[in-house]
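User: My advisor, Dr. K., asked me to get a structural model of this assembly before our group meeting. I'm new to this, so sorry if the format is off. These are the inputs:
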Amino acid sequence: MLTEEQIYGIYVPVVTPFNTAGEIDLESYQRYVNNIIKNSIHGLVVNGTTGESPTVNIQELQTLVNTSRELLKSSSIPLVIGTGTNDTASTVARTEMAANSGADAVLVVVPYYSRPSQQGIIEHFRKAAEVGIPVMAYDIPGRAGVGMTIDTARTILEMNNVVGLKDCSGSPLLVSELSRLGSKPVLCGDDLHFFEMLGCGAAGGMLASANVHTAKYLGIYEQFRNGKIEEARAEFDRLIPLMKLLFKESNPAPIKWLLNAYGEISSDTLRLPMTPISSELREELGAYLAG
Ligand SMILES: O=C(O)C1=N[C@H](C(=O)O)C[C@H](O)C1
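Assistant: The format is fine. Below is the predicted structure of the whole assembly, which you can bring to the meeting.
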């Protein structure tokens, strides 16, 4: 079970590879996740936004949890499963399934689309936390349509079983305030602002872009922690051009294209309503690969 003390460093949210028929491609998944976990990452995140969680059904999620547990059997890397949906009952059902299948924690997003009140958001997290498995709360107003206020985040973080927060709020305010108040750990989920967020008190990052150059992200984190701020910054700056391309169109389409180009997964297929990247971005990523 994931503890607060284990929430630091680089958590990698993996993609869910699909074959051209749109079915989960487990062979690619095993090969690619194995390569990711060869790096000493601090956490593996399955079925996050990067894993296209809104289009993965609970049976498929069960398969992903079982496969990931097996891949991690001789590893101490924590396994975090995205179980949050826009419906509290289905979030609880997925959270129970993950808890019963050996997950170390679940990632629960602010319920999207319905635009609940702050009280509704709190009650949603209370139900998820009552399942008993550690919960990492996930604030991402740009996708959810609604975000946590600082007070709401504090209330949720005070709940038993809620162990930390993934912050994609798009501003350093939340992490700065939570860190000032000595709250539970926060991981930055906003790749381009990772370095800045470390400076504001984030304990690490949950970064889709760390699917490639994983070791460099680990190095940046270690250097930052060891006070080698300038070296960390210089390395981070070198990664920014690629990061910008990876978020130029909706995640995970660019990262899937790149992972396919690197031969890590066999297809860049996405499930609708997600569509492949534009020909312009393909050219730009192609030029990055060639350079
Ligand atoms: O998969 C995730 O979880 C992440 N989601 C963010 C998003 O897609 O908006 C980005 C972050 O790098 C990881």
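One thing worth pointing out at the meeting: Residues 4-229 form a domain with the TIM Barrel fold (CATH 3.20.20.70).

User: Perfect, thanks a lot.
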